[in-house]
Design brief:
Order of helices and strands of chain A: HHHHHHHHHHHH
Largest sheet of chain A: none
Helix content of chain A: over 70%
Oligomer: homodimer
Number of strands of chain A: 0
Structural class of chain A: mainly alpha
Distance between the termini of chain A: 55 Å
Chain lengths: 206, 206
DNA sequence: AGTTTAATTAAACATTTGTTTAGTTTTAAA
DNA sequence: TTTAAAACTAAACAAATGTTTAATTAAACT
């Protein structure tokens, strides 16, 4: 790993757990095992380092669902199932990055960064919207509020996978329980969300 | 308003918009129009000021739903409707405080504060749980995943009411749109969530 | 080889940080 | 009115902050 990448990884970790202002460049340098000056040498400033972390990680959140829209071999509800699983999966494997982005969203300084971040987070919005819209048009889905239905999917997953301590308390679990690598819980979350969407979306339910 | 309260109000405002580390005591003092030393005089330290803000505002988030559990004149789904509306209402009238609490939850330092905050946020968890449980027992509700159903309600509302910019983009609204004081949108959110819960919870739907 | 460019270092820089001090004004009680 | 406590102020404090400098080492090129 190059020096630049080492710094990016340490910055990702520390920004995620302590926030931007809560993390000093010296901490990042120490964690990465490099000289403090290297941060400004490679990135120019702490703020630009932060933006680089966002860019660096935004790449892995590329559009996932665009090819799903025109896939004729799946029913609409099956597409929703896939969207749910992929969303959970993606959030789990990028939990630190999601932490950073959602925290930044709730802060009011650095408005241009907020804008960039919301774009990244909603990169998959349009294909999902299209799938639900088509599902309604073809009579498989009820005439639901499309945007808010997507918010429910994202909100349910986000709410539980953002704060381990919150998740633990909601579920009534003990200290040792870690939602992020607990397979039964992930399965449970997936099943609940899918079932929820079946009841909500499908017209002819039995 | 006393000096102490003025400081608390300014701290609430600034912590909410810029975060704990992102806000300096001098900014707070300036905003409150008092001398910097007053903060340490009244609160001891910046950290204790933060805890005081949490205490100060936690009072207004008292248990809302405990009397709802044993109310016999309402059906279970009507109780859920009330819970949804009260949750939205409470979040709107304390949006700054919710900002602070959810941000703090996602940070990993100050663990004892995280614990206190999650307790505050979940103060109403038990009565809601009880209502759904009774609804299932009495045959009005299906056998849903109770904890995750609550997470869906909270998650949907939280996801949309946390970041104005995100909300705007999800809904495809212009710059000027502010979800926090847009009545039609609040109504829309309320209706969606209620409808969602009807489909999800009710056994004999038509 | 020598030379230029890049990478890295330790130290210093100027600000800003939270906090404290010592003194002053205001308030309230005796 | 005198006295004591509370409220408030301006200044100073030490520590930490992001950033830059100047010097040194390593790499790459001619």
């Amino acid at each position: 790993m190059t020096t630049k990448e080492t710094i990016l990884e340490s910055a990702l970790k520390l920004f995620s757990s302590k926030g931007f202002e809560g993390t000093s460049v010296r901490e990042i340098a120490a964690d990465a095992g490099v000289n403090v000056a290297m941060i400004n040498y490679y990135f120019g400033s702490k703020e630009k380092l932060f933006e680089s972390v966002v860019e660096y990680r935004a790449l892995v959140l590329k559009g996932l669902f665009s090819d799903l829209v025109n896939n004729p071999s799946l029913s609409y509800i099956e597409k929703i199932d896939i969207i749910i699983d992929k969303t959970i999966e993606r959030k789990l494997s990028n939990s630190k990055f999601h932490h950073i982005m959602h925290r930044e969203l709730s802060l009011e300084h650095r408005p241009q960064l907020r804008d960039a971040i919301s774009d990244i987070l909603l990169k998959n919005m349009d294909p999902v919207k299209q799938i639900i819209k088509n599902g309604i048009k073809d009579g498989e889905f009820r005439e639901v509020d499309i945007e808010l239905t997507i918010s429910t999917i994202l909100g349910t997953i986000h709410y539980l996978l953002t704060s381990d301590i919150m998740c633990r308390k909601i579920l009534g679990k003990k200290e040792g329980f870690n939602p992020f690598n607990n397979k039964p819980f992930i399965k449970r979350l997936s099943e609940h969300t899918k079932q929820l969407m079946r009841s909500h979306l499908l017209k002819n339910k039995k």
